[in-house]
Design brief:
This protein has about 400 residues and is an alpha/beta fold. It contains 15 helices and 14 strands. Helix 9 links the parallel strand 7 and strand 8. The longest helix is centred in the last third of the chain and has 20 residues. The protein starts with a helix and ends with a helix.
């Protein structure tokens, strides 16, 4: 008997194939690192977000083992029932202390992942009757948080400070919230955070910033985008992820104590989910110690050297490297099939670079998304640059 629903889905999947939009997974058999083994073959990877190369750091791996021996494998309940362990409490205290230089009276709240953290903070701060001002290139989690909030959503163009100023000036809402990424995950550029904060101060608005790709990487001490641009205010609400530069898993919101207490009481994605395993929180204490110490500073310096090397070595003819000083280095190719072909050629040469297509990016802007890590060597970056230049010379 034919299932018409399955037939419809199968047809839609074929349409994805026709447009070069079907996503497929590869299975890695080794820890996250530049040198991977996939299906028994060695591959040099430039597609993870392990910006400081901490995902397989021996001290963090040992801390994870220690955390499992101390706290077991799982938490067993939500944080507000019985799942909030000593490890979670210690991590939140350390994160609050870590972020004090950029957030007054900072307190932190730990989440299972960044997607949930963004859903939580946007929907809890921007309830019905709020005017919510969203950057056009915000991450999907911020977009979904806006939908969940039931606020009135106003979208401003990428980096368009003047447009945002006009929207804020025209708003008569008693609660205003501006929401933006810091480092944009597909372009690698940085939001004009100082200008955005100035507008929020002028119009009595919150500024919620997703610093998923800045925490641990930007700033002299790795405190992220706020340290990098030198802003400090009780209006700032900060989301940092702990599965990218920190090398483990989870995310956190850091803000004034009053904001965090509100989230604790009202953020549904926090209240109604099982807490992450305490062992992860225990391991993250070691991650923070590395990020904020001499080793973290050395890794950030090395990463910045690799970024400069990559950009200086490119010899592009038809493609375009976007202006990014971060670990995210996109190369715009344009057509989906050409982007997939370029990625396939690189993979055939033993180099794995992500091919990003719509709907993640706008139609006609498909790209190779190169991500650099402090775990890469200069020789590995040279190998990548040479391979890309050969593609352009062909």
């Amino acid at each position: 008997m034919t299932n018409a629903l399955l037939t419809t889905l199968a047809q839609r999947l074929r349409e994805l194939d026709t447009g070069g939009l079907r996503r497929r997974r590869r299975i890695t058999d080794t820890p996250c690192a530049p040198q991977l083994t996939i299906d028994g073959a060695p591959v040099l990877a430039f597609c993870s977000n392990d910006y400081l190369g901490l995902a397989a750091h021996p001290q963090i791996v040992e801390a994870l083992r220690e955390g499992a021996s101390l706290y077991g494998a799982g938490s067993g309940a939500s944080h507000l029932i019985s799942g909030h362990s000593r490890a979670h409490a210690l991590l939140e205290d350390r994160l609050a202390e870590f972020m004090q230089p950029v957030i007054p009276s900072a307190r932190a709240l730990y989440f299972s992942n960044g997607y949930m953290a963004n859903l939580a903070v946007v929907s809890a701060l921007a309830e019905r009757g709020t005017d919510l001002f969203c950057e056009a290139l915000n991450h999907a989690s911020l977009i979904d948080g806006a939908r969940l909030s039931r606020a009135t959503v106003k979208v401003y163009a990428h980096g368009a400070v003047d447009q945002l100023a006009a929207l804020l000036a025209a708003s008569d809402a008693t609660n205003k919230v501006v929401v933006t990424d810091s480092v944009f995950s597909m372009d690698g550029d940085l939001a004009p955070l100082a200008a955005l904060l100035a507008l929020c101060e002028q119009h009595n608005a919150w500024l919620v910033v997703d610093d998923a790709h800045g925490f641990g990487v930007l700033g002299q001490r790795g405190l992220g985008a706020f340290e990098h641009v030198g802003i400090y205010s009780t209006r700032l609400v900060y989301m940092g992820t702990l599965g990218k530069a920190a090398g483990v898993s989870g995310a956190f919101i850091a803000a004034h104590d009053t904001v965090i207490e509100w989230l604790l009481q009202r953020a549904r994605p926090y209240i109604y989910t099982t807490a992450a395993p305490p062992a992860l929180a225990h391991a993250l204490l070691t991650s923070l110690a590395i990020i904020g110490g001499p080793e973290g500073a050395q890794r950030r310096t090395h990463l910045n050297t690799l970024i400069a090397q990559f950009r200086a070595g490119l010899r592009l003819r038809d493609w375009q490297a976007l202006p990014s000083d971060t670990a995210i280095q996109p190369i715009i190719i344009g057509a989906n099939d050409s982007t997939m072909a370029a990625a396939a050629t690189l993979y055939g040469d033993g180099i794995w670079v992500g091919a990003i297509r719509p709907p993640t990016v706008a139609p006609g802007t498909a790209r190779l998304r190169v991500t650099l890590s402090a775990a890469h060597s200069s020789a590995e970056v040279t190998r990548l640059v040479d391979a890309i230049n050969r593609l352009q010379a062909a």
